Amino acid sequence: MTTDIWPSEIRLDPAKTVLTVAFENGDRFQLPAEYLRIESPSAEVQGHAASQKVTVGGKKNVKITGLEPVGNYAVRILFDDGHDTGLYSWDWLHELGRDHNKKWAAYLNALGAQGLTRE
Length: 119
Known about the structure:
It contains four helices and six strands. The chain is an alpha+beta fold. The chain has a single domain (7-111), classed as NE0471 N-terminal domain-like.
């Protein structure tokens, strides 16, 4: 896997609810644990095609319990709800930061459409 975007800093806040990721190009994003969990790149969440994406509710209070480097291209994020199968590539973390507002709005709309909540 190749990437043009490289992180210069990855920091988890003491409350384990926000992951700050800074990139060499100067971009810096604060990514809430809930957002990272519901946008996990795992097949469990994303499916094997765009039409199979699962809307994950009930993650408002999820916390990050660990970060594990994966080669030189990604980090595995461990969550306190037991989810640990997503490999967050540098490109994916950058996309999550860059497109946060759009992805978050789509998530909230999907929750409502499916009768789910963040709680």
